[in-house]
Amino acid sequence: MNQSHRFQRKTLAILLAGLLVFVAGCGNEAAPASAPVESEAETSAIRVLTTTASRGDLSRGTEFVGRLEAAESVKVFPKNQGQIVHTYFSAGDVVQAGDLLFELDTEDLETNLELAYLQYQTAVIGAETSLMNAERTKENSARQYVTVKDNWEDLEEDYDDQRSALRDARDAAKEKLEAARKELADAELAGKTEEELKTFKEQVKTAETAYETAATAFTTFVNTYEKTEDTYKTNKKNAKTDLEYAERAYDLVSGGGDGETLGSAESAIRQAQLSYERAQKALEDAKVYAPISGVITTKNADDSDMVAMTNPVYVISSQDKAPVVSFNLSEDGANALSVGDGVTVVYNGKEYQATIIEMAAEADAATGLYAAKAQPVVPLESVRSGAVVKVKASTANAQDELILPLDLIEYDENQPYVYVYRDGVAVRVDLVTGVSTADSIVIESGLTDEDQIITTWHPDLKDGAAVYAPSLEASASQPEEAPSGDSSEEQPQESSSSAGDEKGE
User: Facing residues of 453 across strands?
Assistant: First the structure.
């Protein structure tokens, strides 16, 4: 629905609401006692109708202007540039659809195919090697990180015990030294002779040496630990950095394992496979067959001639002189259609099924369009050459998708959305849409089959607004009954068609 229609629809609704308020204010009589009294929730909520999205197929057609030609005349182009090895027909010969017309030299094409196959095999081996190396690097980095982390943890666990032991040894040596010095001092006070004091002095000297050794061992251990701890911290940090880098490198090669992102390994394989398939197709296209049955009216090349994709080698005219339709395609149409696809030709109000039999590989330099021809399955009525016809083709298709009428969808700038009824509240749901026609559109995401879509327009309808859907709330409040055999007794719900009419008009 365009903006002018939406504006007219909303304006009409506002005017109608104002008129109802005016009429209600002019009435002085009280409402009859028998009139139903709505609840406060119902009177404050917006009364709405709802519908659900349908599921089915949708096809978008495009129309082209075509022109009838008095007789079918098909130009047969080579699909590759090259040298003709052999031609099998001459001008005036009768051919059947599928007859081999000519062959191109395949020596270079066969070489290209072999090279493409070798490149594909190399890509497979290279991808496997890259993936294996990346995985091995990640595993090695993980092991290295665990080892460094464990070493640091072991160092921390052993530090307290070793430091306590060395400190105790130093303190014990100090106590022995102090005891030896006290004994020496006591001996000197006792007036011991120099010979007697000699033993005490040796004990002091021995205790001093033991203490210095213990103290040095303690200090050296503490200093060494601090340096070692710094080294372990640096090693752990570097090991973690290496592991993170290895993990990113592995994800880059493997694609991360999400099944959607192609890794460099898989991408290389696919590219090589595509090149190989193209080389195979080029080799197959070296043999060119007649697309239709008829008479060869023109032959433009002979054996050993070089030919290009832009110049026809043969021109074939149909024997029964059935008219064909020539038309021009835009780039989008040329991308969507190909030789062998079906189209519909409309002439004199009648529709005829036809098959595309020819499509130019390059666009016309003047118009930028691609020339094409279609052969009707059933010959058209006798017409004059040059008559204008309509060609209809399906350029986009969707199958088994959720489909909504276009006039149910609102737009916030370029974002399509609808309001959905959920427990008495209008909830805005943003949509992702797909193929569309003049009146319908595919909903790719945002809705489910069960969502109740509000079809009523109201000036106060917005996200979070209180709404009242009589049919939904009545059915929700009624107790379940056993199914009746008489289908005529079932009460009909508000139909989606009536809901759509209320919003669409």
Answer: 51, 420
Q: Considering all CA atoms of the chain, what is the largest pairwise distance in Å, rounded to the nearest integer?
A: 152
Alpha-carbon torsion angle 88, 91, 97, 103, nearest 10? 30
Q: Which residues of the chain have pLDDT under 50?
A: 1-37, 40, 482-505
Q: How many residues would you count in the chain?
A: 505
Beta partners for residue 452, in sequence order: 421
Residue type, 69: E
Between CA 73 and CA 84 the distance in angstroms is 22
The residue whose two tokens read 């043999």 is: 287
Please, which residues bridge with residue 229 across strands?
none
Partners of 375 in beta bridges: 355
DSSP E strand boundaries for 154-286: none
Q: How far apart are CA 505 and CA 500, in angstroms?
A: 8
* Phi, psi of 499, rounded to the nearest 5 degrees: -65, -40
Burial of 183 (0-12, 13-18, 19+ CB in 10 A): middle
Query: Three-state SS for 86?
Result: strand
- pTM attached to this predicted model: 0.37
- Strand pairing class (432-436; 440-445): antiparallel
Token pair 């530090």 in the structure block, residue: 159
DSSP 331-385: HHHHHH--TT-EEEEEETTEEEEEEEEEE-SS--TTT--EEEEEEESSPPPS--T
Q: What is the pLDDT of residue 71?
A: 59
d(C-alpha 440, C-alpha 390), whole Å? 23
Q: Tens digit of pLDDT for each residue in 44-83?
A: 899 999 999 999 998 777 888 988 775 567 889 998 888 8
Per-residue pLDDT, 463 = 94
Residue 13: how many CB atoms within 10 A of its CB?
15
Sign of CA dihedral 245, 246, 248, 249: positive
Burial of 135 (0-12, 13-18, 19+ CB in 10 A): middle
Answer for the pair 75, 414: CB distance below 8 angstroms, yes or no.
no
Cα–Cα distance for residue pair 163/458, rounded to 1 Å: 81
The CA distance from 45 to 41, in Å, is: 6
Is the backbone of residue 155 left (phi > 0), alpha (psi -120 to 50) or beta? Answer: alpha
